[in-house]
Amino acid sequence: MATDKYEKWFETVDTDGSGSLTYSELYDFLTQQRGYTDQQVEKMFDTADTSGDGKITFEEYKSIMTSTPSTTHSESALRSVCRSFDKNGDGVIDKSEMTAVFDELKRDLSGSDIDRIMKMTDLDGDGKIDYNELCMKVFGQSCD
What we know:
Elements (H helix, E strand, L loop, with lengths): L1 H12 L6 E3 H11 L4 H11 L6 E3 H10 L2 H16 L6 E2 L1 H10 L6 H11 L7 E2 H9 L5
Antiparallel strand pairs: 1-2, 3-4
Helix pairs in contact: 1-4, 2-3
């Protein structure tokens, strides 16, 4: 089952249909769709391209994905969610951004509901939620 998910993702990123991922294909997808930094993409590409031929085959990709602990994948997904909530890109989620997220989801939450969510997740009490606070709430430990 997981292999089907990997194949679908791989085919989505392989925009030229060559059966392998170039750095450019991976870079474009991860930076535009997932908010990764240049350094993160470079590290990921270098790790996955085990043959050193400048391309990632499906087998190389699958090998990396199945050898990486599922918590790493979950943390990556959580980081992506955090970035999507952070509307102004300052690295934290404030009350107005949290409200906007629920509005986008068509969830009618009151101001006090949003306050309660913020208070439960904002561990340092600064009125903002950062990635580590979200990790602590979701995983019970820091993700760094």
